[in-house]
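worker-3 :: picked tRNA threonylcarbamoyladenosine biosynthesis protein TsaE
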Amino acid sequence: PSKHNVNKLLESETGALGIRIPMYRYIKVLTNTYKKPITATSANLAGRSPHYSVESLLSELTGKQKELIDLVINAGTLPRNKPSTVVDLSKNDVRILRQGDIDFSNQSEKFSSKTVEETKNIAKKILNQNINNKNKPLIFIIEGEMGAGKTIFVKGIGEQFGINNIISPTYVIYYEYEIKKSKKMIHIDLYNIEDRQEFKHLGLEKYLFPGNILCFEWGEKVGEIINILKGKGQLVYVKMKYVGEKKREITVNY
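worker-3 :: tokens ->
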């Protein structure tokens, strides 16, 4: 929690203060040299894809917004790293709000996809390999940067049940589809979920019953409810990596 010695604009609505631990060398040199507090913010605009270059960021700013910038340090095109891990230390129990690295088990498969149809077929294959558990819902935790093909992967799963109208639920958080014998497929997009309180209002636990399929896009954000999902469901972790304009690397862990 914040000691309220900083500008209130830097505090969250709950009065907490976020602290960033950077891994980027130039930022570490800057902080060590300046030796005073530095305020940082994300370069991503709400609901937009991440920026990996100065040119990309500036192209989305208005003239008025650009006037607020005093200095730009251009380090070239940044690596396409996944979002940072976010840990909540404001309570007695430490909570991971956004998981940067998932502790996978030893069972792993890797696939390479060069087309939309290949990605869908990979999804169908993984579904068929894991759908026989009658005692738990099947839960896909899908990670990957913007444009990696997460929604395409979910579409492949949907097509296996005859669902051909799947769209990304980014702004409504999740869509519910009927599959068979009163069972459901739930397509969840956690892109805009930032606070643990938001999970409480989603009501996802009501879907954690045998026969249901849950697909989480931006799965690195499930940290707040990962223990619930592990306890009630069969989890399949899917990591989608952007390799080229058309090529994707898909790693599946159980």
